[in-house]
Amino acid sequence: MQKLADETGLAIGVCHLPPGTSKWNKIEHRLFSFITQNWRGKPLLNYPVIVNLIAATTAEAGLHLHSKLNTGTYRPGVKVPDKDVALLNLHRDTFHGEWN
Description:
Elements: H1 2-8, H2 26-38, H3 47-55, H4 82-86
């Protein structure tokens, strides 16, 4: 994100939820019941089947979902060296900067 901010001149803000709170927003909570109803009784054989069942879900209010399989790999425990962190233009927000 630092590279994007440098290239575009945009100020990018990243905010995290307070520690100990759910990272699901209210929309995700409300949609999960519709997703589970949609795939009820269907064998979840592989990722494409799951992604397609999620995408085929609609809510009572007419909300339609879009889903896409993330095929990226993310190694656990990757540490960013202090010298790389020092190059980032980071500033704590005045509103609970300790959360980030």
